[in-house]
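Problem: given the chain below (266 residues), write out its structure.
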Amino acid sequence: MRAGRSGFAVVVAGTLALGAFTAPSAQAADTGVKVSNLVLNKGRPIIVGTSGEVRPTFTYRVSWPSGLKQSDVSTHLYLYHGTTAAKASERGGIYMALTACGSGSVAADCKGELYIDPRYTLDANNDATTWKSAVWVRIWNAKGGLRKEEYLPLSATVRVKRAAKVTVDASPEPVAKGGRLTVTGKITRADWAKHKYTGFGGKAAKLQFRKAGTSTYKTVKIVKANSTGALKTTVTASADGYWRWTFGETDTTGGATAAGDYVDVK
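Solution.
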């Protein structure tokens, strides 16, 4: 998608990936345009599932030489991996979000949001990795013709992660006090190639319990999922309450916590 001449835009190139960072300023040698204070998703990583749209916000500041007007300048942010910024812009699946910018004689603060639909813009699980950033700067003349353009690499890198889920089931329900309670569940995560959730084998999860009438979960034990992501363990039932599985983020995958499964102890 090609941005129009007016205003500013953000583009995400390749198999669309976003992250969370604050970028240091970068000066474009040919155009004199400077980009600074870039923030995506309020400093958090972007976690993407298999079907739900994700719209992370962004802000940045752009400035230009005194001989130019604001309408003469357009800037486009690229996030990419495995290639150069210039080559990334030539790949398919480029998506763009127009920004809203304040007015200024030589600088403006801009804000907006990006758009990810994983059904069309993520196609490989190795996209859950570190992404590089760059800005495509273009200068236009009064008649709408392109005067200059360049790719401006930024030093910031970002992480994109696969969303994860975990289920829980505690049985039997009810259970006799002092009896054995079996707690099962399954860990799955987004498979961007298959566009569905698949088992997250080998991942360790915490089994936690919250006694009825209290507000805090306590970890009872840690269990590693089998090769298909299944979790299973047994515990002694001592009081009414809620059981759940939970685990934290990894470099490639987001964390998840199951809703508590209530068990009545007789």
